[in-house]
Fold this sequence. Notes:
By secondary structure, the chain is an alpha+beta fold. The protein contains 3 helices and 4 strands. It starts with a strand and ends in a 7-residue tail after the last strand.
Amino acid sequence: MFVVIFRATVKQADELYSATAARLRELALTEFGCLEFTAVNEGDTEIALSYWPSEEHILAWKAHPEHRTAQQLGRERWYSSYSVQIAEIGRSYAA
Length: 95
């Protein structure tokens, strides 16, 4: 299993931002194999964690046209900075 860690400094969150985020979350979970998606905001900081079964799933998601449009809007309009990290989870457990 893999995790994508998305961190951003939000410049402008508007109605389109909220609608796009909701749509992309639904799409990732229902059509691209995302196993879990969690996002939190504090002040102007956003952190999103999404869990995926394989790197191939992540690459397919990254290339999807709606996601690419949102990426462009993020760079141009919504975020002053962002970073993406992808890691493989070697062990996971819960109580």
